[in-house]
Amino acid sequence: MKTIGILGGGQLGRMLALAGYPLGLRFIFLEREADCPAGQVAPVVVGDYADPAALARLAERCDLATFEFENVPVEAVQRLRERVPVHPSPFALLSAQDRLHEKTLFTDLGIPTPDFVAVASFIELQSACKRLGFPAVLKTRRLGYDGKGQVVIHSAAEMEPAWRAVNGVPSLVEQFVAFRRECAILGVRAADGREAFYPLTETHHTRGILSTALAPAPHASAALDTLARDYVKRILDRLSYVGVIALELFDCGDGRLIANEIAPRVHNSGHWTQDAGVCSQFENHLRAIAGLPLGDTTPHGYCGMVNLIGDAPALERLVSIPQARVHLYGKEPRPGRKLGHVNFCLPTAADREAAMRATLAILPPR
Fold it and tell me: What residue ranges define each of the domains in the chain, with the CATH number in brackets?
């Protein structure tokens, strides 16, 4: 019976463990706080991710390891990898942690992405905006997620406040994309190169945080889904990736998909997979890193997910929604905090939309 060590003890780690227990897997986490979502379901080594002693304690108690979010230090993954196998690789993590590396990867693979310029000073920001035009998007190269670390610049007068907003750290300026909608696709790759893909998913965000997801993406042609799969496959193969990866995309509405960013882990846009069919993204990630055959990724219906952000209705109200599958993380309410989500897998798109409307109607204001 294998024990899997996980760097990070948030809700993604918790859901990985819950998906792995039916397979006979065991889990142990490294997290700074013992009182974390993963601590509800498995032992926790309390310590900093970069602490060699904490990493050694984790390695002593696991057979292989992974991570549940992309801002763990690459050095920690490298150090842990000296003791036990770790997937995905430090190289894959490095590629996702720095937006310049990420955008360069897209360009090298022929995957369309917004025109971009790296900037390290206000003068360089001015030059980049002159080249790309307005509106433009200023994004920090590192530590950006859920809308953090990015500012839309509409005019020259907004450049200086935007530069202050990102604290003058090394950043990228991207050409603004007038997209029709945002989408994401999840791919999973095993060590022997076997791959599987979940269908293209439409995503909606509130103040930069994912709020709802619909899969398969409404009105997405087979050609569009194939294109998204091709893009994520290129990334999986280039990185010799093992595990689940998410590729976030802009759908321009004319058959084009523009790559925004990758996440080298299980991803919020794929939480619907927990209740959609044979094998969730969480189980498939574990299968891939443990050397097991990959599972079926076909959804058994029209799937949707609603995130519970900041605050949540009483459990009684949530479970009273017909066919709602409620997943709560055991976290205290706080503005902007993901507390849980509600999944649906229904026979028709109309059924899905009605169930999601009923859920959204009882949520507190966001």
Answer: 3-86 (3.40.50.20), 115-175 (3.30.1490.20), 181-361 (3.30.470.20)
